[in-house]
Amino acid sequence: MMQRTTRTWEELRSSARMAERRLEDKIAAYTEFSRAQTRNSVAVYDEENPQEETADEKELAVDIENALALLSDTIDEMNIVVDKTSVKTQDAMLQRYRELYFDFNTEFRRSMSALQEKRDAQKLFGNRAHTGHSDDVEMDSLLNERRAVDSSRSLTSNIIEQAMATRNALENQRRQFTSSHGKVATLGSSFSGINTIVAQVRRKKMRNNTILALVIAGCVCFTLWWVVLSKIKEHDSPIQMGGPAILKILEVSN
């Protein structure tokens, strides 16, 4: 495992995508080639010139090995970056490429193993594996067992492919749920902003109502003060007017 990385996350992601595209194309071609070889029951085995790997097959296998090594190194570098940053989106992408690497490597090894087993069977049984006729009863029994094993292995491979397809569908659903969760979180944030605006409007309205109540209370207090003051003036006026009249009466009496 690499101890440090000098590439940025964008460079690592670009490298991983390139390796992913290469592996998708080349493993699909290698798997198709392997299936064509393992299902070919017409070719006759030549003991003097046994069928070996072709140049194209070797080149394709080497390209796949190199692409797997590139993806593995990129995953190691991504792991270093994620350990430093702890970003959830980067961690999810790292997990996705780990799963892709496991799938690509498993499918490639399975195809290579099936192809090698086909060649080994041809070397072991020769043309009897194709004609189905032999004077050796024990050999015929072994051939029948081998056909049964091949059939079971083919059925198992189909089941594994269906399981992989189901897992891919579940992963797509998980990504959709994750996307939906993000949208719900965005809506929640929007509602939070709306609630903040409503609270601000409510506080402003309460402040305006408080100011209006204080103004009305001041007006009422002023009105009451004016009414009371007017009553007091009306009560004091006769006394002030009666003072000079009393003085005149006293002067006349004297």
From TrEMBL:
Predominant place of localization:
Golgi
Q: Which residues form the signal peptide?
A: none
Q: Which UniProt keywords apply?
A: Golgi apparatus, Membrane, Protein transport, Transmembrane, Transmembrane helix, Transport
Q: Could you provide one GO biological process annotation from this protein's UniProt record?
A: protein transport
User: Which parts of the chain span the membrane according to its record?
Assistant: 210-228
Q: Where in the cell is it found?
A: Golgi apparatus membrane
Q: Please provide, in alphabetical order, the Gene Ontology terms of the cellular component aspect for this entry.
A: cis-Golgi network; Golgi medial cisterna; Golgi membrane; SNARE complex
InterPro entries under this entry?
Golgi_SNAP_su1
This protein's source sits in the domain of life called Eukaryota
**What's a single GO MF annotation on this record?**
SNAP receptor activity
Give the matching Pfam families.
V-SNARE_C
Topology relative to the membrane: Single-pass type IV membrane protein
Q: Which family does it belong to?
A: Belongs to the GOSR1 family.
Q: Supply the name of the protein.
A: Uncharacterized protein
